[in-house]
Amino acid sequence: MAELPVLFEELEAAGGKKIGLATLNVEKSLNSLNLQMIDLLQERFSAWEEDDAIACVFLQGAGDKAFCAGGDVVALHGGSAAYGEEIPNDYCVNFFSREYALDYHMHTFKKPIILWGHGIVMGGGLGLMDAASHRVATETNRMAMPEVTIGLYPDVGGTWFLNHAPGNTGLFLGLTGANINASDAKFVGLADRLVANEYRANVLSDLQAADWSGSAESAVNKVLRHYEAQSAAQMPEPNVRPNYDLINSLCDGDSTAEICQNILDYQTEDKWLSRAIDTLRNGCPVTPHLVVAQMREGAHKGLADVFRMELTMSRHCAAKGHFKEGVRALLIDKDRNPNWQHKNIADVSEEEVAAFFEPFADDPLAHL
Predict the structure, then answer these.
(1) Is residue 74 predicted with pLDDT exceeding 90?
(2) Fewer CB within 10 Å: N-end or C-end of the chain?
(3) Domain of residue 160, CATH code
């Protein structure tokens, strides 16, 4: 019998308490989220939240390469429309609505959720990470919201966490899909603690031995604080902080096209910046407009309304063709030569962008 794609354990802890341990268990696909995994997590998290014996939850990914490399976009590709095609996208509606409901549940969870965000953390994995109360990044991290490469946009709460990043760093990361490391993640607000990956077992052991008679949050902080202090020398040099003023300057424009042109025109020998610029240059021309619009539209929304807005946007993405073409080129045919509907970012009209925000008759996230 095949193992489940998410494994659950309840580890005995001091004072009669338990630690709920959840492990994403699809190592071959870098623990990419599918609908079954989302449903398993939602069901177990709901039970653990109401179980008085569970002191906290610890969420990790199997293997050393990745916590979670994103959502199962190949399956979403099958439920999406090509340019000019009209097909029902029930799978996409189900996937996105249940994924966002899980993210929202984690954001509002009554107990600490420690998320061990090692290795690759992208897309849907970053959505899970941001939703946890105690987000641990490690020296092995490679994080990104690279949706510009597949004609989507930074969803899974990206509107929320990119808007909360300092200055224009969130906008820059959304536009360019730039990879960031653990030091960057803490600077932009996507990680709370930087702990070397070698201490994972120690952290779990110390959580089991912790004093849970008082504040659960304090008990978790005490453990993570100890190992963060021991890990400082292993953390990488940041890329975002040294370029903070430059990023703010490049993203200072009166239109999406102007901001993107600022970035594309910038000449640099910095490898991190160069890769980010190239990703934008080769990405979907529609995505930058969605990034700017989502951040503007979501700037003053509450978390539930952010997820409702993103569900509307994602349903339109599944119906308009850009997403299907992007996934085809990157992951299906792997020719890395997408035939985008627009040749340039400046060719996308305001009317086209506004159409991604047109509400649907139903709202699967009305219960949030």
Answers:
(1) no
(2) N
(3) 3.90.226.10
